Amino acid sequence: MARISASEDRAIAIRELRVLDRRMATVHIAIALCTTSALLVCVLVSILFILLSARISRESLAALLGTPLLLVAVTRSFGLGWRAAVVWSLVGALIVHLAFYKLLRVPLPWGVLQPIAW
Description:
This protein is mostly helical. The protein has 2 domains: 1-55; 56-118, no CATH class. It contains 3 helices and no strands. It has helices at 6-53, 58-77, 82-103. Helix 2 (58-77) crosses helix 3 (82-103).
């Protein structure tokens, strides 16, 4: 049986450690994605439960959830951070509502904002 030198033994160990490091990174990403998806499912279920228990119409629910979510996706695709994307999406949803309601005179459902409707 041939003996391996210390330098060859070290090279083999380094190669194995690199493989283990890549595996650890992959497992870390997989666990993070699973946790994030589970958290998002919980958030969605709780939002739907709250909104449906408040007896909000489907149209208001779609406008209330859809417009800000779409604007967050658009602003994030432009490279804004999460905080700025959320702020701009809420401001943008209000601007879109005002544009349709005041400029175009198209009535949109107020939904949960009915008490502050003008």
